[in-house]
Amino acid sequence: MISFRSIAPVAASALVGVVLIALHAQQGGRSAHIVWLTVALVESTVSLLYRGRHPIGALAGVLGGYLIFDFAATAVVPLAIALFTVVTRLDRRRAIIAVLATAAVVLVTQSVHAGRVWNGSNASVVR
Questions:
Q1: What is the value of pTM for the model shown?
Q2: pLDDT 10s digits, 6-32
């Protein structure tokens, strides 16, 4: 059964995402299309609803949305909620692996979407 305690953080995350989309979507630039930002927010929200039974699946869903859409404003709060759930519900080994995987995905996403490639000594812009 879904309780208020499990839905409240998800609702707060969705509300923050809606406000941030409204503030940032009109500024232009990459990932500024309001439909895709809404899709990313809905995907993260649905993923978080399953975090009680499937914490790794919820984290993977949020990370997947972040990797595809790369809009940190709609991903930071859901990512924090999903990661907190993984760390509090799973054993230490799996939690550490999840934290490291999350860090890797965030770093890869930033480098891929920014057009930067790591060449061993420094990052260079690929055009």
A1: 0.79
A2: 889 999 999 999 988 888 766 665 545
**Residue 20, token pair as written in the block:** 């941030």
- H-run or E-run covering 117: strand 116-118
In angstroms, what is the C-alpha Rg of the chain?
16
**All residues at 6 or more sequence positions from 31 whose CB lies less than 8 Å from its CB, including other chains:** 37, 69, 70, 71
If DSSP codes are grouped into helix, strand and coil, which group holds residue 53? Answer: coil
CA–CA distance from 84 to each of 33, 105, 127 (Å)? Answer: 29, 17, 37
pLDDT of residue 80: 94
For residue 32, the SS3 value is coil
